[in-house]
Amino acid sequence: MNFRKLGSSEIEVSEISLGSWLTYSGGVAREQAQECVKAAFEAGINFIDTANVYGKGASETLLGEVLASYERSEYVLATKVYFEMSPTDRGLSAAQIHKQIDASLARLQTDYVDLYQCHRYDKDTPLEETMAALTEVVQAGKARHIGFSEWPVEKIDESLALPDVERFVSSQPQYSILWRGPEAEVIPLCEREGISQIVWSPLAQGVLTGKYRPGEPPPADSRAASEEMGGFISWLVEPRVLEAVQRLEPVAEQAGLTMPQLALAWVLRQPNVASAIVGASRPEQVHANASASGIVLSVDTLAAVDEALGDLLTRAR
Length: 317
What we know:
It is a single chain. The chain is an alpha/beta fold. The chain has a single domain, classed as NADP-dependent oxidoreductase domain (TIM Barrel). Helices cover about 35% and strands about 15% of the residues. The protein has eleven helices and ten strands. It has helices spanning about 25, 30-40, 60-65, 95-110, 125-140, 155-160, 185-195, 240-255, 260-270, 285-290, 300-310; strands spanning about 5, 10-15, 15-20, 45-50, 75-80, 115-120, 145-150, 170, 195-200, 275-280. The protein has an eight-stranded parallel sheet with strand order 3-10-9-8-7-6-5-4, with helices on one face. Strand 5, helix 4 and strand 6 (about 115-120) form a beta-alpha-beta unit. The longest helix is centred in the last third of the chain and has 16 residues, at about 240-255. The radius of gyration is 19 Å and the shape is globular. The relative contact order is 0.15.
């Protein structure tokens, strides 16, 4: 496993990280999650990402129980705040940030997280209030660093211009061969400001593994077939997308790679990406994804990827 520096922080994270969005918030059983975490440590993964809203605390609770048997210094732990936890608990006000960090730490059974992220931008709270509260969380030792996910570029800029507040070290955007929006503005800004990307859905929710075939029902054990996990995948299983993904298979074969290796190496070709977050419901998936670390794609392979996708490319959206 290779490691990359997380923005301007002193933290080094594994190029492949373990996420828990749909899988550990109720999508898979505790025993499976425990085996996947064990596999992650075996594979050299040191970075685990979650959020308070995943399963309304269920993911954090599960990870807290599973990680309790590991030395805290062995892993980098990230969580998030913003989305609704109750009818009266939502957003990035100072009160919410302080309330939610304490609740997250209790569920995670730890005194601190390495990275505390704003899950989205809160237009109903002054940016100054949000940044001041995040700064207080860091000063209190409850988080080592802060990050954001899917913020408007202008708000990232504004946050960086504020005096006497903690600076962001990470951005968590959706980014994959099929979804290239961050390349337009977010990545160039973050490169200038010492902010790394830790990207979600680099495998396009499993579509880039090639497991979904045009005109065929999804595999019974797949995300698309799961009532708990399949709610966000509809646009990715449209026939034209699946047909384009099929055209990537000979590209991967020509490069001597599996489809997941091709997709993850493509994301990691970008120096501003510190880590690619992958979900896993089985230990073998963890090891397969971890094997993408360190793979360098040739210029010819990169060109073949773009040619295979044709007009499907989503460079900015």
